[in-house]
Each structure stands twice: as structure tokens, then as C-alpha cells.
Design brief:
With 621 residues, the protein is mostly helical. It has two domains: 433 residues, Amino acid/polyamine transporter I (Up-down Bundle); 147 residues, HUPs (Rossmann fold, 3-Layer(aba) Sandwich), CATH 3.40.50. The chain has 24 helices and six strands. It has a six-stranded parallel β-sheet, sandwiched between helices. Strand 3, helix 21 and strand 4 form a beta-alpha-beta unit. The longest helix has 34 residues. The protein starts with a strand and ends with a strand.
């Protein structure tokens, strides 16, 4: 007997957590948009920031509609694939470019906020990206929680900074200068600060793990309400505070155009909070200490570094999804023992490092901003255009009209960036070109590699199947079973979570035979990706080996095989144990080291803490 369970992923992200995760990406934009805008147009920059804020709000509303119509996630790739596979690939590769520069720019700006110079910030950014990549090799479980913590802290600190700016807004309005440039120059300047759109695409990737709307079902999922609740508060905070801080910069006379381009919000905290406090009676000890400016720096640096981790994870998930969809070489889908696509992770590590390394001096921030813009704006244009012109979507006429107009504006911005920023265009072309080159190698458009290169590639990427062994004997486990459960309690169903033909699996078969019980063999393919990626049971060689082995050693035992894919194995085990109604759950002892348990958590403790009391837990090993 076999039970097909598909690849259901836990929809355990409610709107509050989705909003916090979205803010961890989208909310970082104000950290550099305000300073870059002022460095471009100085005391005319308010009009640029205002225009960007309005466009950001319109794009956010559009993404509420996109999320409503694409509840399974996948972002631009899913929406564009309904129109054209090649268009979907272009959108996906532009998103890859966006994620690469997100990691580079966020990490670089984090160290600018910490007070480092341009070259020192670059050095520390490179080192930090490498360390974050190494940590991601273990697929750490707590990165999402850290992103939420930094998001909440940043909202509180930014709220305090906004309150401190309010008394200075009349002076700021008096200093706002009228636009004096020709319209085309203003348009080009506007496209240079379009970074406030960064991060909005991440919500479209998140819909596959969002909690379903009331009344919907996994067979017909709907997440429009959840997505709207998540997007709306983040959109308002990003748009309102970005415009407010952009205006507040005008209240500071004789402000240097470039000195604070990378850490303008820190400077606002110093001028509008620290200096007034130091001038109060009894507060003179604060003179020159800039405590609030450091608080701003620390929370923004933490949020920006969290965005680095998020971008790397999203990049890994996107390329892995392309691999499982047959668009990338299967080598990219190779998982390490922690469920992380390690080859793709190497790309996610070294591509941002390379992008930072080629930047030079004070122009690094503007260079990264231009490369950032061409990726994120291009991906948004493809997503909105594909959705607006997909007439099979049940979209209201008003929604479709607004989305079409928004697409035309965003597409014009993308074309302008491509024309006026040659380096950004080259970067986008290289990323798209490499993507299609990898696809052509996979799809059968042969590109003949030199013999030595081909032999090295064949040596580096052999197929590997890792199996774990348990050490406790069946007799010892039988004694443990008697002590823990007792012999009088009937056992009708047993589940074993198996990752190989181990003593744990054999012990479970023996127990099912002794108690004449139904045996459920659960194989959980651990997959650390942020985008739900379908996996086919028949293509998982390790799972097939386990299922064939159990059928051969349990011929006289009723066996049900269950295949599941999850980024949270503990949740998958608990879920299937409850659904199957088992009396006993058997697990093999974890061989993870202390560092691995710290980064990923202890599976045994997670299962034991949430397992229903009526299910007996047996740990072998």
C-alpha cells in the first residue's frame, strides 16, 4: 500500500510574520534612498523622493492584486510563465540580478551606517557575505526570527526619529527649491532613486507559505486577504517615512551632498535628537556622544545584514526552483546533508562578493544603486506586464487598467536605466546571458567544453547518497518500549521517519510485526528554500531506495509509504503522525554536532515538545 502525499509545504506564515519578513527587505530602502536622492539633487531632492514614494504606493497596490491571483508563490517566474516560458526566464534572471545586488548593497551600506569609510566598508562587506554564506550551508532555522526582531526594532526607532523630525518640517519646506532642470534630466534623476521599489517582489514569492484566507482550502488556495494585510502597513510605513525623511534633510543648512549619502538617517538622528538633547539643562554629558545616532545605526545595520541573508536565501530558492522546473542543470539541485542546494549557495555567496569588489571608492554606492535598479525594476515590469495582459486572470477592469499603466511607467524606467547606466546594462546582460547559457547546456544545445574542463566537472559533481546509522539494538529498544508504553496498551499503527535502511527502520518493522500493526514509513526530503518547490517522489533516488528496501524486509507487514518535502522536518513528522493516527512514533537518534544543533535546532526536542500525549515516542540510537 502506498500513500501519495505530494509536496505540501506548511502554510504557517500569518500576515503579521509575512509583514515583518517583507519589512526586512522592503523596509531597508529608506536607509539609502534618502541619502542617494540628496546626493543627486540636494535641496531639490524632495520632489524626487515624493515621486518615488507615490510610485512605490501604486506598485504596492498592484502587488496586492498579483498575490491574490498567484497564491502558490514563485513571484515573477510564476506570473510570466503563464504567458511565455522565455519571458518567465528573463524575469527570473532579472530577479537573480536583483538578489545579487541586494546582498551587495545592503551589506555595504550596513557598514557605512556603522561609521566605516568606503574602502573599509567594502572589505568588511565582503567578509560578512562570506560568513553569512557559510552559516547558510547549515540551513539555519533562526534567521527568519532574527529578521522579525530587527524589523520590529527598526519600526520603533524609525518612529522615534520621525517624531523628532516633525518640528523641523516647516523649516524644511521653506528650504525646498523648485525643480530647475529640464524634464528629461529630472526623469533620469528620478530613475536613479527608484530603489524604494526594492523588496516588494519578495511578497509575491511568499504567498506559497502564507496562511490561507478563511473559507479557502489547500485544493483551491486563496491568500488575497493575508497578502493585503501584510503589504498595507509595510507600504504605508515605507512610503510615508521615506518622504518624511527626504523632506527633513532640507531642514539642515549647508548639508554636504555626498558625505552622508550612505548613512543619511544616522545623520538625521544626530542633528534632530542628539544635538537638542545635549543642549538641555542637565544633559550636557551627552555632548558629542551621538547615542541616538548609534541606535539608528545599529538597528539599520542589523536590518540590512538580515536583508543580506534573506536575499541569499531567496536567490538559492529561485535558482533551485528553476532547476526543479527543468530549466537549469540538475547539478544545481544537489542538496547537502542539511537540505541546502550547496552549488547554488556558492553562487549566492561569491556573486555578491564579486559585485562589491569591482566597485571603487565614493562611487561604489551609486554604482550598486544603478545595478540594483535595473534588476528590481525589470523584474517588477515583467511581473506586472505578464499579469496585466493575462486575460485569463479574473481581474477587475479597474485593476487591470491601473496595472497596465503602472507597467508602462515601470518599463519606461527600466529602459531609461538601461540607456543611461551602461554598467548596469552590462551587468543585467551578463546575468541573463549566463542564465540562458546554463539552460542551453542543460537543454541539449551542445557547447563543447575542452576535455580537461569536462573531466574536472564530471569529477566534482558525482551523485552522492548519505545514509545514517543508529546504534541501539532492537532488544534494548524492546525493553525501552516495555518501560515507556507498557505491554497492555494495544498498538494499531506505528510510524517511522526513515532516511535510509538503518537499524531504526528494521526495528520499526519488527515492532509492527510483533504488534500486528500498520507501519507508516515516512521519508521527509528536507529542503531549505524560501519558495515552495515541487519535487517528484519517483525522481528522489534516496527515497525510492528506502521504500523498496522496506517492502522487501516487511513482506508480512502492512506498509504505507509516505513521501513529504518540507523545510521543517519536525513539523512534517508531527503533521503526518497526527494525520495517520499512529500510536507509536520511532525516530533515529540525531548525529548532528553541537554547532549544527545550534544553527538548525534539535529535531528530537522539537518533536517531543509538540507530540500529542497519546503517541509514544521511541528514539533509536
Amino acid at each position: 500500500m502506498e500513500l501519495a502525499t505530494g509536496t505540501r509545504r506548511p502554510r504557517n506564515v500569518d500576515w503579521k510574520r509575512a509583514a515583518a519578513l517583507l519589512y526586512g527587505d522592503w523596509g531597508t530602502s529608506k536607509a539609502y534612498v534618502v541619502g542617494i536622492a540628496f546626493s543627486i539633487s540636494m535641496y531639490h531632492s524632495f520632489w524626487l523622493v515624493l515621486a518615488v514614494g507615490l510610485l512605490t504606493m501604486v506598485v504596492g497596490i498592484n502587488y496586492m492584486w498579483v498575490c491574490k491571483h498567484f497564491p502558490e508563490g514563485g513571484g515573477v517566474y510564476s506570473s510570466a510563465k503563464a504567458q511565455s516560458r522565455y519571458l518567465a526566464l528573463v524575469g527570473a534572471f532579472l530577479l537573480v540580478a536583483d538578489y545579487v545586488v541586494t546582498a551587495s548593497l545592503s551589506c555595504y551600506d550596513a557598514f557605512l551606517y556603522l561609521g566605516l569609510g568606503f574602502e573599509d566598508a567594502k572589505t568588511w562587506a565582503i567578509l560578512t557575505i562570506f560568513i553569512i554564506g557559510v552559516l547558510n550551508f547549515f540551513g539555519p532555522r533562526h534567521s527568519g526570527t532574527l529578521a522579525v526582531v530587527f524589523a520590529v526594532a527598526t519600526v520603533v526607532v524609525m518612529g522615534l526619529l520621525a517624531l523628532a523630525c516633525l518640528p523641523h518640517l516647516p523649516a524644511a519646506l521653506a528650504n525646498v527649491e523648485r525643480p530647475a532642470r529640464p524634464p528629461m534630466e529630472w526623469w533620469v534623476a528620478f530613475t536613479g532613486v527608484i530603489l524604494a521599489l526594492s523588496g516588494v517582489e519578495s511578497i509575491a514569492n511568499m504567498t506559497g507559505v502564507m496562511q490561507l484566507d478563511p473559507g479557502s482550502s489547500p485544493a483551491q488556495p486563496q491568500v488575497g486577504i493575508t497578502a493585503r494585510k501584510a503589504i498595507l502597513p509595510v507600504m504605508i510605513e515605507v512610503c510615508v517615512l521615506t518622504v518624511l525623511f527626504g523632506l527633513a534633510t532640507h531642514a539642515i543648512p549647508n548639508l554636504d551632498a555626498h558625505k552622508y549619502a550612505g548613512n543619511m538617517l544616522r545623520h538625521l538622528g544626530e542633528v534632530f535628537v542628539d544635538e537638542p538633547l545635549a543642549g538641555l539643562t542637565g544633559w550636557g554629558w551627552l555632548q558629542g556622544k551621538t547615542l541616538f545616532a548609534w541606535v539608528v545605526s545599529l538597528v539599520l545595520a542589523g536590518l540590512l545584514l538580515s536583508a543580506v541573508n534573506t536575499a541569499m536565501g531567496a536567490l538559492v530558492s529561485l535558482i533551485y526552483m528553476l532547476c526543479k522546473d527543468g530549466e537549469m542543470p540538475p547539478t544545481f539541485g544537489m542538496l547537502n546533508r542539511f537540505g541546502v542546494p550547496w552549488i547554488v549557495l556558492l553562487i549566492a555567496m561569491f556573486a555578491p562578493i564579486l559585485v562589491i569588489d569591482v566597485q571603487r571608492g565614493e562611487n561604489a554606492l551609486h554604482g550598486l544603486a544603478a545595478m540594483y535598479g535595473i534588476g528590481v525594476v525589470g523584474a517588477i515590469a515583467v511581473n506586472l506586464g505578464s499579469s496585466a495582459f493575462n486575460f485569463q486572470l479574473p481581474m477587475r477592469r479597474r485593476e487591470r487598467t491601473i496595472m497596465m499603466i503602472t507597467f508602462l511607467v515601470v518599463a519606461a524606467i527600466e529602459i531609461t536605466i538601461a540607456i543611461t547606466k551602461p554598467a548596469a546594462l552590462v551587468f543585467a546582460v551578463v546575468v541573463i546571458g549566463l542564465g540562458f547559457l546554463a539552460r542551453s547546456l542543460h537543454k541539449g544545445f551542445p557547447i563543447h567544453l575542452p576535455g580537461p574542463v569536462r573531466r574536472v566537472a564530471e569529477t566534482m559533481f558525482p551523485k552522492a547518497v548519505a545514509r545514517r546509522r543508529a546504534s541501539l539494538s532492537a532488544e534494548e529498544m524492546q525493553a525501552l518500549w516495555t518501560r515507556q508504553l507498557g505491554t497492555e496498551r494495544p498498538v494499531g499503527a506505528i510510524m517511522v521517519a526513515a532516511r535510509g535502511v538503518t537499524p531504526t527502520l528494521r526495528y520499526a518493522v519488527e515492532q509492527a510485526r510483533v504488534h500486528n500493526a500498520q507501519l507508516f514509513v515516512l521519508f521527509v526530503r528536507e529542503l531549505y528554500t524560501t519558495i515552495p518547490v515541487p519535487m517528484i517522489e519517483e525522481e528522489d533516488e534516496e527515497a525510492q531506495a528506502v521504500f523498496q528496501a522496506v517492502r522487501s524486509i516487511a513482506r508480512d507487514v502492512p506498509v504505507t509509504t509516505i513521501y513529504a518535502v518540507s523545510n521543517d522536518p519536525a513539523w512534517a513528522i508531527l503533521d503526518h503522525a497526527a494525520l495517520a493516527g499512529v500510536d507509536m512514533l520511532i525516530l533515529g537518534h540525531s548525529r548532528r554536532g553541537a554547532l549544527t544543533r545550534l544553527l538548525r535546532g534539535d529535531l528530537m526536542q522539537q518533536v517531543a515538545a509538540h507530540l500529542p500525549e497519546e503517541i509514544c515516542l521511541i528514539i533509536v540510537g
